[in-house]
Structures are given as structure tokens and as C-alpha cells.
Amino acid sequence: MNSATVRNLLVRGMLAGLAAGLLALVVAYFLGEPYVDKAIGFEESHAAAHEHEVELVSRSLQSTAGLATGVLIYGVAFGGIAALAYCFALGRVGRFSPRATALLLSGTALLAVYVVPFLKYPANPPAVGNGDTIGKRTTLYFLMMVLSVLLAVAATILGKRLAPKLGTWYATVVAVAAFAVAIGLAYAFLPVINEVPNDFPATVLWRFRLSALAIQVTLWGGFGLVFGELADRLFHPKPATLSTGTAVAASQ
Amino acid sequence: MAQHVAPPTATTPALPGKLPLKDIAPWAVFFGILMLVLLYFVGAEQGATAVVSGEDVHEWVHDARHLLGFPCH
Predict the structure, then answer these.
(1) What percent of chain A has pLDDT over 90?
(2) Using one digit for the tens of pLDDT, what is the confidence trace for A150-187?
(3) Chain A residues touching B50 at Cβ < 8 A
(4) How far apart are CA A39 and CA A127, in angstroms?
(5) Is residue A69 domain-shared with residue A150, that is, in the same domain?
(6) Could you tell me if A100 and A206 lie in one domain?
(7) Closest Cα in chain B, distance from residue A94 (Å)
(8) Closest alpha carbon within chain A to B54
(9) Which keywords annotate this record (chain B) (predicted)?
């Protein structure tokens, strides 16, 4: 029975991830793509001396079908992982309803999976980033992501441990402060990466990064709301209760 | 109209209990790994490391990779 609940939540998580991915795709296409194009324009105007590379996938495919493939798979994959994390979190992080747990989880995931690594190693448009350092940059980015997620889990466990002694409020404050200090140390000790070309337009970089952030806020916000709704319907599958309640209330 | 005066017990259903870890574990291990493999192909394949040779995977998800914040070429 419980195993079936896990399977059900996993399927719902992946569906919610797909729905959130579709929303994020709209944001990516309309907010992000114009700056990808501007950055590629900059790249081409500065690479005139080089021979042009053979285009394996055309720009019009990259910005539509390619973008959709990437964003939707990302949504489904994170939706599945978040649903599994939700199975662990439900009833363990505190006395929250299925919907509140979903929103709390997706908010934390946005922060730990994306915002914290982003503040140290932000998203870069084409033309920003040296091809020779891709190995180092990939390692550092994923290291920052894993570190941030592990520290968020550790902070949650710390908060739960402290709650009986300090009370929920102060335990949460201490846990969040401990997370912030640990992340601050990681920021301070991990190497800085700055490969922005000197004459790269600052506005394009700023707008590109804002749109990258908007994509993630849409994705995780959408996921939290849709998945919370689907999980709630799994745990309270009684539309009859609602209509009876309304009928009783209406008759009063 | 008068829904808000209904007794709270009618509108606040019981909270679901904890799901046992032994029921979550097999799903978490199998699907967790599967999802991470998917993320790898969207985020990092044919960047620093490559399972499939060539540049096709990288080029196909190129825009998504930049906009989702992954390091890219």
C-alpha cells in the first residue's frame, strides 16, 4: 500500500515536473532566447578572424525543439527527484499539509539546487566562458550544487534535532544561520571564475542571468503548486466531502 | 456564502503519516539514478566528459544548457 503511494507520488512528481517545465519553457523562450541570440551575435562579430565552425544543429532548431528537449527533461528529472525527496519529507520535517510540504520542498530545492550555486557560479550566455576551462568549471559547478544540497539536508536535520530544546522558531533560525555560514565558507574558499570578455555588453549579461533566474523560479514555483495539488488529491481523494460540506454550509 | 463558519474539523483533513523508508528506498535508488542520468545528458554530456562521441547532444540542448545555468563550452 505504502509502496503504491511512493509510486503514485513519483508519477505525479514527474507529471508536475513536465507541467512546470512547460511553463519554464515559455519563460525561457520569450525572456531568455533574445539574450542568447545577442550573445551569439557578439561571439560572431568577434570571431570574424576565425574560420566558421560547421553548424551541426541550426539556430532555429536549437532555440525551439532543442530548448524544449532540454528544459522538459530537466523538469521531469527534477520533478521525479523532488517527488522522492517529498516521500522522505512528508510527516518528517514537521506538521505540514501535503500542499504546504510540497511548496516548502520546492522552495528549498530552488534555493539549494539553483540559487546558492548560481550566486557563486552564475549562468553564462554563449561567448562568456573559455572552452579550455570547461572541465574545471563543470567540476566546480556540480561540486557547489552537491555541497549546497547536502548542507540544506544537514541544516534540516540540525533544525529537527534542536527543535525539542530551543522550540521550532529558534531551531529554524539556528539551522538557517548554520547553513548560511557554511555556504559563506564554501563561497570564500572555492576559486573565483570570471571569463567575461572585457567588451561583452553588461546589460546583455545582466538580462541573461535574470532570465535564467526567472526560468528556475517559474519551474520550481510551478512544480510546488502543481505537485502539491496532485499530492493533496492523492491523500484526500474525496470530492464528495467537499460538495457535502458546501451543501451543508449552503443550507444553513 | 457561509462556508467560513463551518466547523474547522470539516475543512482540515487529517495529515498523512510518514511513509516507511523501506518502501521509499527501492524507488529512490532506481529512479534517483535514472533521473540523474537524464540530468547528466541535458547538463553535461559532451562538455567536460562524453559518453556519446561527437557534438550532436551538446549542440541539440545548447540553448537549454546555457539558460539552465550549466557550464557550456
Answers:
(1) 83
(2) 999 999 999 999 999 999 999 999 999 999 999 999 99
(3) none
(4) 6
(5) no
(6) yes
(7) 11
(8) A56
(9) Membrane, Transmembrane, Transmembrane helix
B66 vs A91, A126, A135: nearest CB: A126
Q: Which domain holds residue A189?
A: 129-195
- Calculate ∠ Cα A20-A24-A29, nearest 5°: 150
- Torsion, Cα A111 A116 A117 A122, to 10 degrees, reads 100
Per-residue pLDDT reduced to its tens digit, A98-145: 999 999 999 999 999 999 999 999 999 999 988 889 999 999 999 999
Quick one: pLDDT at residue B17? 86
Q: Quick: pLDDT tens for A4-34.
A: 999 999 999 999 999 999 999 999 999 999 9
Task: Say how many domains are in chain A.
Answer: 2
Contact flag B15-A252 (C-beta cutoff 8 Å): no
Domain locations in chain B? 31-73
Q: Do B27 and A10 touch (CB under 8 A)?
A: yes
CA-to-CA distance for B62 and B43, rounded, in angstroms?
A: 9
Q: Nearest CB to B56: which of A56, A98, A129?
A: A56
A-to-B residue pairs, Cβ atoms closer than 8 angstroms: 182
In this structure, the answer to whether residues A179 and A231 fall within a common structural domain is no
Residues A136 and A176 in one domain: yes
Instruction: Assess whether A91 and A185 both reside in one domain.
Output: no
Q: CB burial class (10 A; 0-12, 13-18, 19+) of residue B72? A: buried
User: Do A36 and A96 fall within a single domain?
Assistant: yes
Domain assignment of residue A98, yes or no: yes
